[in-house]
Amino acid sequence: MKYISENQIQDLQNARWAVCYTTIEGNYKNIIEKINIPVFGCSSFQGVFTPKGFLKGTHFLASYEDDNIQSYAVIKKTTADNAKEKGKEAIHEIIQQLGQPNVLLLHATPGYEEIIIEGIEEIIKSQIPIYGGSAADNDISGKWFVFKNNEFVQEGFLLVGFKSNAIYGAFLGGYLPTDKKGIVTKAEGRIIYEIDHKPAAEVYNKWSGGAIQSYLDTGGVILGPTTMHPIGRYIDEIFGVKMYLLSHPHMVIKENKALSMFTEFKEGDEIFLMTGHKNALIYRAKQVIDRALGFRKPERIKGAINIYCGGCVGAIMNDIEQVIKQYNYSLKDAPYVGAATFGEQGCFIGKEKHNRHGNLMADSIIFG
């Protein structure tokens, strides 16, 4: 495998396929449309993770004949109403072309990722791990997209199956639970109305020591003040380590002091206030690679696809090169590309496998 920048696309001529991440400014359409091999990916927030740094522009991880990694990509336009059915169609097509893949890469546009996963899961029953992230732009204005060759989709998803004899993956939060917890007593979709029968924003504000006090009467977007204090849900544990799915509070709805989130909730969910800090977010780039490899020590890592939350990138932008150093060190200088995303998909592997959509998380697919 090989990392390739937009200035080296002649090196893609002999590749079998390439995954590509790009920022939304620049000449990405012309670059991608010139490529005559299967190429697929999504837009990324503010930059692309590469061995050379967190860079603007269009960047590729290419796979060649010698790598012996098969891929097949399906792209679908969707609405919330047909997303489940389109998810089922996509995984059927991949299995028809590849047989059962070892791992799936999902890039959806933000909005209803859980519904897409639900459709895929109806077919695979959690037997195939899903990793990936939601397409992003630079300012949450909806300019994000997913693509396969010259087909660019602004509402829908890309699903890619990979097949090889050595593929590893992991999904990680990097935040710790606090002693603040409660039960969701009223919710619909991505809005939590009440926690323990009290207005959700008021409860969250109390839990977080007044982090959103100034928004309780006015409402508004709270992504900045809540990045280090997401909501967590316990999913599973392995070797005594508990795994939490994270959700980023998005907005206070002033009429009823509800919380709009970037993931779905249901009544009866037990939720925890989580806490994080910059050093932990930087260090988790290494942790997610270590967790993916586990006790395995491959002689050589062929390459990797790294996904890292765009909200966390915003919080640690001044130290973003430290994340690059963690990736380079942990991957032993193997080639990779990575996207900064507006939602992350991954598989918690504990007592069971759980494919989930979360926020403020990191995941990686490693080709050994």
Q: Approximately how much helix is present in the residues?
A: 10-25%
Q: How many distinct folded domains? A: 2
First-residue to last-residue Cα separation: 11 Å
Number of helices, where a helix is a run of at least 4 consecutive DSSP H or I residues: 8
Q: Tell me the fraction of residues in β-strands, as a range.
A: 35-45%
Find the count of extended strands (DSSP E, 2+ residues). Answer: 27
Rg from alpha-carbon coordinates: 20 Å
Instruction: Pick out the low-confidence regions.
Output: none
* Shape summary: globular
Largest sheet: 9 strands, antiparallel
- Summed over residues and divided by their number, the pLDDT gives a mean of 96
Structural class assignment: alpha+beta
Description:
The chain is α+β, with helices and mostly antiparallel strands. Helix content is 21%, strand content 40%. It has helices at residues 28-33, 83-98, 113-124, 200-207, 223-226, 278-293, 310-315, 320-330, and strands spanning 2-5, 17-22, 39-43, 48-50, 53-55, 58-63, 70-77, 103-108, 130-133, 146-148, 151-153, 156-163, 167-172, 176-188, 191-195, 198-199, 220-221, 231-238, 241-247, 249-253, 258-261, 270-275, 303-309, 336-341, 344-349, 353-358, 362-367. Strands 14, 15, 16, 17, 18, 19, 20, 21 and 22 form a nine-stranded antiparallel β-sheet that branches. Helix 2 packs across helix 3 (113-124) and helix 6 packs parallel to helix 8. The longest helix has 16 residues, at 83-98. The mean pLDDT is 96.
